[in-house]
Design a protein that fits this description.
By secondary structure, the protein is α+β, with helices and mostly antiparallel strands. A hairpin with a 7-residue loop joins strand 1 and strand 2. The protein has 2 domains: about 260 residues, 3-Layer(aba) Sandwich (Aminopeptidase), CATH 3.40.630.10; about 110 residues, Alpha-Beta Plaits (2-Layer Sandwich). It has 9 helices and 19 strands. Helix content is about 30%, strand content about 25%. The longest helix has 18 residues. Bound molecules: zinc ion (ZN). Zinc ion binds next to loops.
Amino acid sequence: MTNMTASTDPLAIAAALIKCPSVTPAEGGAIYYLDGLLEAAGFECHRVKFSEPGMADVVNFFARIGDGGPHLVFAGHTDVVPPGDADDWSHDPFAGRVADGMLWGRGAVDMKGGVACFAAAITRYIARHGRPKGTVSFLITGDEEGPAVNGTVKLLAWAQQRGERFDACIVGEPTNPRALGDAIKVGRRGSLSGTVSVRGQQGHVAYPHLARNPIRTLTKLAAALQAEPLDHGNDRFDPSNLEVISVDVGNTTWNLIPATATLRFNIRFNDIWSRDSLEAHVGALLAQAVGPDDAAYEIEFETTSSDSFLTRSPELIDALSLAIEAETGRRPELSTSGGTSDARFIKDYCPVVEFGLVGQTMHKVDERVAVADLETLTRIYERFLERFFEAG
Ligand SMILES: [Zn+2]
């Protein structure tokens, strides 16, 4: 038993958040809970609803305390992915049960637990040192696990319009593969998707000279895309990788040469490439692969692609690394691996790093977090706050 009040106890806060069934885009009570909690801690709170035709409204949240710089923003989300079949879970995914030293439930690590730890950390900090000499804010979206249209992008623009200027950001996503202290994410690879469509000429399979089989050309193009590695990586990033993710012809007939064939691919790329240079490279690979007898093809790139980024902010990265090392005895790897996150939007406003809980069970049945990890992450965040605001 502890005598901590709810507002400084990350376990109580995380359990309360898990009890809010905030499956994207539902608010589920999670934002309102956070609003009450941070208002009691002295924050100025704003619930901000965004709409888009044909989409569900999404409630987001911004809260701030203090004045002027430096301005540290903690970014995260309270929405969660669906639990799947609740009967498959050892404990009700929305009960916030503690058992076997674990807090169980959807969002335990991704990322209600991370939000709870930062809320507990700043509340403890204020109790110990008073208001920070600068500003601390929360930028919380309810639309991270969904289309992300009514979430972080709009909330960042909203905050900027109100005159908020951020100096540094921590995203509390679960960044540690195995144990707390494994890794800080200091950047992300870019993502580029595309579709190659080949148009041949349909015909009878017994008379191929009267047709033009698009699959012959498509397989050449697929081979060309996969023949050589795009690069060998560098000291900051893993090698870029192209995966063919789908080959589609849809021909169910045995005696027919089809008219068209398509393939789709996705590339995760490092900072050796820009989106433009990579599109040009892919275009050249395809062009070199075909000869005069091949069917015509087209390549189309998705507009949702994003460039890679790398945060170079010693103040932010060193302060966080030292806080992690002090609490866990481990020096975190500075990682750029893994998928994309809302950090790709925040990087346009201020230096951003990601550090949260252990990601092993995220999005899975029986998502759970060690109770001890919640306390350790809270201490890491508080230690970081002390360093960042030089109050230690
Ligand atoms: Zn997440």
